[in-house]
Design goal:
The protein is of the alpha+beta class and 163 residues long. It has one domain: Roll (Pnp Oxidase, Chain A), CATH 2.30.110. It has 4 helices and 12 strands, in the order αβββββαβααββββββ. The strands form 3 sheets. The chain has a 7-stranded antiparallel β-sheet with strand order 3-2-6-9-10-5-4. The N and C termini lie far apart (42 Å). InterPro entries: Flavin_Rdtase-like_dom, NADH-dep_flavin_reductase, Split_barrel_FMN-bd. This is Cob(II)yrinic acid a,c-diamide reductase. One of its GO terms (molecular function) is riboflavin reductase (NADPH) activity. It holds the Pfam family Flavin_Reduct. Keywords: Oxidoreductase.
Length: 163
């Protein structure tokens, strides 16, 4: 079968029509915290509880996720749009300024957990797979916390929406 490559820009333009729930994935290694706004995350299994997140491997700052062995997946609500922007890199900010846009605590692993997220999944890394431009990190969920139901923050057509 002959493979016909798709132009990366064409692919990104088509994927911009694919709506996704906005998540904040966080980790810590020593005293260094890292957080990234993503839409590429999902449930893998409920027994054992497992989620996956996809992170761009071209950013060397993401290496901390591959070294720490832990992460938290925080589901963002409509009230988190400024926080999502801060961790997406849309606004130039220091790491401390980014983390100051929200209130964080810890559950089991020590990864930063957003205090008022719609839901948070505290995870230990089970496996990491490199796939082209991204790493897929599988995490065993060791703790969960969720708050009152509020409108969700979605990203579609290169802009935020709520549901």
């Amino acid at each position: 079968m002959n493979r016909q490559p798709i132009d990366p820009q064409l692919y990104r333009d088509a994927m911009s029509r694919f709506g996704g729930h906005v998540q904040l994935v966080t980790t810590v290694l020593g005293q260094t915290r890292r957080g990234v706004t993503i839409t590429a995350a999902c449930s893998v299994s409920d027994d054992p509880a497992c989620v996956l997140v996809c992170l761009n491997n071209s950013n060397p700052k993401n290496d901390i996720f591959f070294q720490s062995g832990i992460f938290a997946l925080n589901t963002l609500g409509a009230h988190h749009q400024a926080l999502a922007d801060a961790f997406s890199g849309r606004k130039p900010m220091s790491n401390d300024e980014r983390f100051a846009t929200g209130k964080f605590d810890k559950l089991v692993t020590g990864a930063p957990v957003l205090w008022d997220s719609l839901a948070s999944f505290d995870c230990r890394v089970m496996e990491i797979k490199e796939m082209s431009t991204h790493h897929i990190i599988f995490g065993e969920v060791v703790a969960v916390r969720f708050n009152e139901t509020k409108p969700a923050l979605l990203y579609m057509n290169r802009d935020y929406h709520t549901l």
